[in-house]
Design brief:
Elements (H helix, E strand, L loop, with lengths): L8 E3 L2 H4 L1 H14 L2 E5 L5 H15 L3 H5 L9 E3 L18 E5 L13 H4 L2 H25 L25 E7 L12 E4 L5 E7 L4 E4 L5 E3 L7 E5 L1 H6 L9 E3 L10 E8 L20 H4 L7 H12 L3
Parallel strand pairs: 1-2
Antiparallel strand pairs: 2-10, 3-4, 4-5, 5-12, 6-11, 7-10, 7-12, 8-9, 8-11
The structure holds 2-oxoglutaric acid and fe (ii) ion.
The site of 2-oxoglutaric acid has 10 residues, from strand 7, strand 11 and strand 12.
Family: Belongs to the iron/ascorbate-dependent oxidoreductase family.
GO molecular function, one term: oxidoreductase activity
InterPro entries: DIOX_N (IPR026992), IPNS-like_FE2OG_OXY (IPR044861), IPNS-like_sf (IPR027443), Iron_ascorbate_oxido_reductase (IPR050231), Oxoglu/Fe-dep_dioxygenase_dom (IPR005123)
Length: about 325
């Protein structure tokens, strides 16, 4: 049994043999803490190792070179040190991190022009983006199964058909680098407290910890690096869409005395519903009755509008 303090580790190979049991486990974690680790997730370790190699090569470029592809309102490109402030209400300075956001690679081409260092890895990046998205689709299928969406409404394909890779959406593959520092001001943060914006996020961590998750009773708990596991979390879109059944949990990345001298790298895949999907109630008996929360002002947002609102609140472009 897990408590609201634990981030459960779920063996995803069970999804091949005992779909409903595995789907239930994933739903339980998504409802209780909004975070879970997946073991046996099907992504080759060599691909995960390689994305970190590409990321480190990119971040070692001079800042001026990276700034040539600075992030814009489309949410693609390079976000410099201190540019993003994930928790503007409490942070005096922006996050102590830099990142690069890739849009989807439909037809093998990236949604944006890539810097030369990354362009040479375009085929691998396109493959990795797809691999991550495919895992997200399987998790979304598990949600539909656990929510018992009736066959007449689309059954286990209800979420997946709203998240197809070919559709325009806010999906982002993101590489992150948190530089080592010699000392810190006490309120410096690697990434301020925030929740993610989309349906769900995959997070790959490597070697250096520091990620913390706000548990049900307002305690920050550690989400350590667990070799062989990918961390999955629910985003705001799914919390909103499920009338609060699924939890989009706040998390942050802190400096700790044992890690501030170390560079930290992570990779995230943010999976979103297609921009024009209207966020009508999910046709599930577990969600019906919660949705008056969302429809109280009579307007139904689309996934694209929901994302725009969230992005505008946290970036200085
Ligand atoms: O780097 C990490 O471990 C977390 C990053 C994160 O939460 C984000 O980019 O949304
Ligand atoms: Fe996040």
């Amino acid at each position: 049994m897990t408590s609201r303090h634990d981030i459960p580790i779920i063996d995803f190979s069970l999804f091949e043999t005992k779909k409903v049991t595995c789907a239930q486990q994933i739903k339980e974690a998504s409802v209780s803490i909004g975070f879970l680790y997946l073991r046996n997730h099907g992504i080759d370790q060599s691909d995960i190792d390689n994305i970190f190699v590409v990321s480190q090569e990119y971040f070692s470029l001079p800042t001026e070179t990276k700034l040539e592809h600075r992030i814009k309102r489309d949410n693609f490109g390079y976000s410099a040190l201190h540019q993003e402030t994930l928790d503007p209400e409490t942070q005096n300075t922006g996050d102590f991190k830099e990142a690069f956001n890739f849009g989807k690679f439909v037809g093998g081409n990236c949604s944006q022009e890539l810097p030369a260092t990354l362009a040479q890895h375009k085929d691998f990046l396109a493959k990795f983006s797809r691999i991550c998205h495919n895992l997200c689709l399987k998790i979304l299928e598990a949600f539909a199964i656990a929510l018992e969406i009736p066959e007449t409404e689309g059954g286990k394909g209800w979420f997946t058909e709203r998240h197809l890779y070919e559709l325009e959406s806010g999906d982002i593959l993101r590489v992150l680098h948190y530089p080592a520092v010699k000392s810190i001001d006490h309120d410096d943060m690697r990434a301020g407290s925030h929740s993610d914006y989309g349906s769900l996020t995959l997070l790959f961590q490597k070697d250096v910890g520091g990620l913390e998750v706000l548990s049900g009773d307002d305690q920050w708990i550690s989400a350590p690096v667990i070799p062989g596991c990918v961390l999955v979390n629910i985003g705001d879109l799914l919390e909103y869409w499920s009338g609060g059944l699924f939890r989009s949990t706040k998390h942050r990345v802190v400096f700790r005395h044992d890690n501030l001298l170390l560079d930290r790298y992570s990779v995230a895949y943010f999976c979103h519903a297609a921009d024009d999907v209207s966020l009508e109630p999910i046709p599930s008996r577990l969600v019906v009755g919660r949705m008056e929360v969302n429809s109280s002002d009579g307007r139904v947002l689309t996934a694209g509008q929901h994302l725009r609102n969230r992005l505008d609140a946290s970036y200085k472009y």
